[in-house]
Amino acid sequence: MSASLTEHSVPSEDPRLDGRAVKRIVYDASAINARVQSLGEEITAAYPDGDLLVLGLLKGSFIFLSDLVRHIARPLQVDFLVASSYGDAMESSGVVRLLYDPETELEGKHILLVEDIVDSGRTLNRLIELLGERKPKSLEICALLHKHIATELHHPTRFIGFDAPHEFLVGYGLDHAENFRHLPYVASLQ
Ligand code: IMP
Ligand code: MG
């Protein structure tokens, strides 16, 4: 289940933007906070027993994950993955390389892969394949945002924060050329 879209205008005085164009706020800090809290509650209820490893895909998930885990009321561990896709020509074949591989043992654990946004779904497809080979007890995806345009997703996204508009979004971890990750809201650049 995901919450509906809320739209707000961008505070023109936000010094974080340094005059750069951000069209509008799509999810403000309080909408995000409320949704992340209820996602945490959903996740708490979904995992009754066993070891839970929350695995954040860097860099985009860093803020979302840090807020989310504080709303999951059960024992868990946290680790991160760094993945890189090759250039555009290779990307369509779904070639993804792990630049940082979690040191934690995955076998026998519930793995919750946390992603900022699902767009084409190519990165996730390959990661799910790689992680599945480590024999986790279960493997689920939690994404803050989902554009619902991926046609070739092999694994459903179990937990979704918001159904996102088909626009380029920044803030709350999401970047454009490494900028805007620190915005406390999600905004559209288009
Ligand atoms: P996919 O493999 O096409 O699903 O790509 C997902 C990755 O692309 C995300 O983890 C983001 O890093 C990036 N991405 C996709 N859409 C957006 C967007 O609207 N804003 C910022 N980053 C995006
Ligand atoms: Mg990015």
What does this protein structure show overall?
The chain is α/β, with parallel strands linked by helices and 190 residues long. It has one domain (17-84, 97-189): Rossmann fold, CATH 3.40.50. It is built from 4 helices and 9 strands. The strands form 2 sheets. Strands 4-3-2-5-6-7 form a 6-stranded mixed beta sheet, with helices on both faces. A 3-stranded antiparallel beta sheet has the order 1-9-8. Helix 1 crosses helix 2. Bound molecules: inosinic acid (IMP) and magnesium ion. Magnesium ion is lined by residues 60, 175.
Briefly summarize what is shown.
It is built from four helices and nine strands; from the N terminus they run βαβαβαββαββββ. The protein has helices at 29-46, 62-69, 88-91, 122-132; strands spanning 24-27, 52-58, 77-85, 96-100, 110-118, 138-146, 159-163, 169-170, 186-188. Helix 2 links the parallel strand 2 (52-58) and strand 3.
SS class: alpha/beta
Tell me what portion of residues adopts beta-strand conformation: 25-35%
* Share of helix, binned: 10-25%
Largest sheet: 6 strands, mixed
Q: Roughly what is the average pLDDT, rounded to an integer? A: 88
CATH class type: Alpha Beta
Note the overall shape. Answer: globular
Give every kind of bound small molecule, once each.
inosinic acid, magnesium ion
* CATH-defined architecture: 3-Layer(aba) Sandwich
- Which sequence of SSEs, written as H and E, runs from N to C? EHEHEHEEHEEEE
**Low-confidence region ranges:** 1-6, 88-92
At the fold tier of CATH, the topology name is Rossmann fold
